[in-house]
């Protein structure tokens, strides 16, 4: 028991104990590009880098629960569901990586509005059509030969007609990477540096 002339000392409180830590900034990395451009391959390297920096990462690539619903005639609903899930990941300080073709500029802008423009990073992953086609045809889960022949014929007809194949190339992405001049690790490094510059992640020490 303290006497009248004794002063009770309070335990010292360090800076880290004075209150909750500042919230971690979340982000949605929206990888868009034609099939075979290399989005899924570089995603594996990006996840490795982000987790190495201590971040929690959610990858939304082929997600059965977010597939097209019965009666849907386009991928718009599926993509917007991915955007909604990404928004919740971002809200809790995580990083969502959405691996999508998302060919239409309009649906990408809807996804941006859903997530929040300040947290949405559109990354255009590009490879020439012949390279993308070659990659698709060498996948372990490639479609049957007849489907590949039909798809190649459609592409050739579009090219002959001067059409872009229904893909709206991003006009102002946060970043564009060419997977024919950058390895998956280099492409992932470019995206990681973008997130560092925007204050989303910090480089690991050491």
Structure commentary:
This protein is of the alpha/beta class and 206 residues long. It is built from six helices and five strands; from the N terminus they run βαβαβαβααβα. The chain has helices at 39-52, 76-91, 105-115, 129-137, 145-161, 184-197; strands at 27-32, 57-60, 95-100, 120-126, 175-178. Strands 2-3-1-4-5 form a five-stranded parallel β-sheet, with helices on both faces. Helix 2 links the parallel strand 2 and strand 3. Helix 2 (76-91) runs parallel beside helix 3. The protein is globular. The termini are far apart.
Largest sheet: 5 strands, parallel
**Helical residue percent?**
25-40%
Shape: globular
Report the sheet-strand fraction.
5-15%
Distance between the termini: 50 Å
Rg estimate, integer Å: 23 Å
Number of helices: 6
Mean pLDDT: 81
**Regions with little confidence, pLDDT below 50 for 5+ residues:** 12-16
Q: What is the element string, with H for helices and E for strands?
A: EHEHEHEHHEH
Biggest sheet strand line-up: 2-3-1-4-5
Secondary structure category: alpha/beta
Number of DSSP E strands: 5
Architecture blueprint of SSEs:
Elements: E1 27-32, H1 39-52, E2 57-60, H2 76-91, E3 95-100, H3 105-115, E4 120-126, H4 129-137, H5 145-161, E5 175-178, H6 184-197
Parallel strand pairs: 1-3, 1-4, 2-3, 4-5
């Amino acid at each position: 028991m303290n006497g009248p002339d004794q002063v009770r000392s309070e335990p010292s409180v360090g800076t880290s104990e004075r209150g909750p830590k500042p919230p971690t900034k979340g982000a949605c990395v929206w990888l868009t590009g034609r099939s075979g451009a290399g989005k899924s391959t570089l995603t594996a390297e990006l996840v490795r880098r982000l987790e190495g920096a201590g971040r929690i990462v959610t990858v939304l690539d082929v997600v059965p629960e977010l597939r097209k619903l019965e009666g849907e005639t386009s991928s718009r609903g599926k993509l917007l569901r991915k955007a909604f899930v990404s928004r919740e990941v971002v809200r809790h300080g995580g990083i969502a990586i959405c691996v999508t073709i998302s060919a239409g500029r309009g649906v990408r802008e809807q996804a941006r509005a859903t997530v929040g423009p300040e947290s949405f990073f559109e990354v255009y992953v590009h490879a020439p059509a012949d390279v993308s086609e070659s990659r698709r045809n060498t996948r372990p889960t490639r479609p049957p030969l007849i489907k590949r022949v039909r798809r190649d014929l459609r592409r050739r007809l579009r090219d002959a007609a001067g059409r872009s194949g229904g893909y709206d190339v991003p006009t102002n992405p946060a970043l564009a990477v060419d997977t024919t001049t950058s390895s998956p690790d280099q492409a992932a490094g470019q995206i990681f540096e973008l997130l560092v510059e925007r204050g989303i992640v910090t480089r690991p020490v050491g």
